């Protein structure tokens, strides 16, 4: 079920209304736009000391997993934390500090394709000023935040040409000034959340799964059965954009500071 983001309450209100304010939580956190504000250059999205403190405190009282489009080692580095479960590359690459790599059949066997597509994107985008190609474990991100608007159609052509060169093999997900090109595999952040709830034994009665995200790829997690039916999806969105956004989330927060305050509350 989807709703207009501007009509959704804040997550604290939802938890109180459901009588769930004292539950145990399994908290799934997206990274960019949730734990750090969106910035011009991806490498500059470093988590603050205060957010690190809040997430670490929360991890003492709840299960915390980071589910990001970024590569897993990059997430650990940007967060400055290596003791959390991290599902990197949109959930394709999962690692637990306690049990090591968490595998799943659906997301294996695409490495050659991703390497080839990454080379093609790099070659084709090289002539477009301002583009930034971010090679990743299971996808390639073509960033165009610094590209003149008049050249956005050229960037789109690169994506279209690469997709056309691999009929039926790829899909592209739009993000914040980024095209995420991935293998066309039935795996996403929502599937990763369901998998984590199983393998980390988090489906216990009284454990409420919460997912906090800001981007289009997070909609897969908001509509995952465990989040949509009985869990809580929280969309982070600027109130100025909320009227235009349909979402499967059930609550909203305005920005990264509001996320910090909410997580701080959960940690108490
Ligand atoms: O799933 P997420 O953790 O939200 O990651 C989504 C993508 O985030 C990064 O790109 C976005 O954030 C950058 C830093 O703020 C910004 O410069 C860029 O324009 C945004 O698209 C990251 O670089 C991607 O790999 C992630 O997939």
From TrEMBL:
SUPFAM superfamilies: HAD-like
Keywords: Hydrolase, Magnesium, Metal-binding
Functional pathway: Glycan biosynthesis; trehalose biosynthesis
This enzyme's EC code(s): 3.1.3.12
UniProt xrefs under NCBIfam families: HAD-SF-IIB, T6PP
Similarity section: Belongs to the trehalose phosphatase family.
GO molecular function, one term: trehalose-phosphatase activity
Organism: Actinomycetospora termitidis
Stated role: Removes the phosphate from trehalose 6-phosphate to produce free trehalose.
InterPro entries referenced in this protein's UniProt entry, alphabetically: HAD-like_sf, HAD-SF_hydro_IIB, HAD_sf, OTSB-like, Trehalose_PPase
UniProt enzyme class: hydrolase
Protein name (Swiss-Prot/TrEMBL): Trehalose 6-phosphate phosphatase
Lineage: Bacteria, Bacillati, Actinomycetota, Actinomycetes, Pseudonocardiales
Gene behind this protein: otsB
Reactions the enzyme catalyzes: alpha,alpha-trehalose 6-phosphate + H2O = alpha,alpha-trehalose + phosphate
Cofactor: Mg(2+)
